[in-house]
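Sorry, any thoughts here?
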Amino acid sequence: MPRINRQEVLDILKKLIENIESTEIILVEGIKDVKAIRKLGFKGRIEVCLHQKTTLTDISTLVGGRGNKVVILTDFDQEGNNLNDRLSRLILSTGAIVNVGFRIFFGKALTSVGIREIEGIDNLID
C-alpha cells in the first residue's frame, strides 16, 4: 500500500468535512478542537463536550433528540475512544443518529500520519 503524505491527509480531511450535512452537529472535546475543525472549512454547528460545568448527560441532551445527526470527533487515543463510547450511548438514547462511519474514516486518515488529537490538525495546516 502506498504511503500517504500529510498534504494528502489534509485534503482527505477537508473532503470529509465538506460532505457533512449542514444540519449535522460536530461534537469535540475542547476549544482548540473547534478551531482545528473550523480551519478545515466546517461552518456548521460545533459543540464542546468537556466543559467544567457541563456533564456528558447535559451535552447529550443539548445535541440529541429525534432526527438530530451528530458526529463525535473526540481524540483517537484510549481516553478519547472511551469518551466517544459514552457519548454515543447517551446521544443514541435521545433518539439522535450518531454518524459512526465518519469518525472511523476521519480517524484512519488522521492517525495515518501519527496524529491522534483533533487539535493536531493544526500541524497539517501550518
In short: The helical segments are 6-18, 31-39, 56-63, 78-92, 100-111, 122-125. Residues 6-125 form a domain with the Dna Topoisomerase Vi A Subunit; Chain: A, domain 2 fold (CATH 3.40.1360.10). Residues 22 and 43 are 8 Å apart (CA to CA). The two ends are 27 Å apart (CA to CA).
